[in-house]
Amino acid sequence: MHMTPPRNFQAYALLILLTLIWGTSFILIKKGLVVFTPVEVAAIRVSVAGLALLPLGLVRWKHVQAHQRLNLFVVGMVGIFIPAFLFAWAQTRLDSSLAGALNALSPVWTLILGAFFFQQRFRPATIAGIIVSFVGAIVLAFSRGSGVTPDFNIYALLIVLACAMYGTNVNFIKFKVAGLGSLTVTSVAVSLIAPLGFIILFGFTDFVQKLQHTPGAWRAFGFLATLAVMSTAVANLLFNKLIQTRSPLFAASVTYLMPIVSVMWGLLDGEQLFIGHYISMAAILGGVYLANRK
Predict the structure, then answer these.
(1) pLDDT tens track for 194-240
(2) With a threshold of 0.70, does the pTM exceed it?
(3) Cβ pair 112, 167 in contact under 8 A
(4) Could you tell me the residue ranges of all domains in the chain?
(5) Are 242 and 250 in contact (CB under 8 A)?
């Protein structure tokens, strides 16, 4: 019994730290997009994260059995690689504050996919919360950076898809790679996908030329390197630790607070939010809370 308070403190400390790190990631993507294309932004993110975690990945590789390596490659692709491209592409037409708000759908997808594939049960409140959250997301998808318009912003669907992948990954880590430590899961998964990032970055983009000749390129690269090390490498280490010490839903609930941080950075960067944006965010977060309430 005496071990419960320290463990709870550690879990909530990790949750707050993740909130700050991941809440800042959307503004860093935005700053990177000033110079680089979405493909370059995502490839830089994956590649630099791979370099940061490579020493640890090499050390931990011996702890991974052959049949587990495919699972860790899936973790890297579904939880990091593909979402990195989806978010970068989405933020070419979506403000960073709104991207952070839409990312709050991750716990809802965790519930849905956990019920369909991992035998978790729905309650009436869960169904109601899911409906409310997606209604909020639909309204937010009609919200442009300059206000609410009758035009649907299809780029919002890219973030909804990324959230579905996050939800899949949370359940997959909990139920398919639970025997491995968080350091092993993160470092090996990122190390496995990093070569794809390097191939794309140096084989199919103008990344090197931009660093050499484009004003502001090194500054933009600095933002993306920070994104890669903190939001991809360090945060995923913390997140996987949280998944393995608490429930998948508790871990995914980091997105309750992330919109506060992303909105703060967006407003500081001159983004405008209107009443429709706030109502939509409140609906998303309220629905997520209702769906997860015990």
Answers:
(1) 999 999 999 999 999 999 999 999 999 999 999 999 988 888 788 77
(2) yes
(3) yes
(4) 18-292
(5) yes
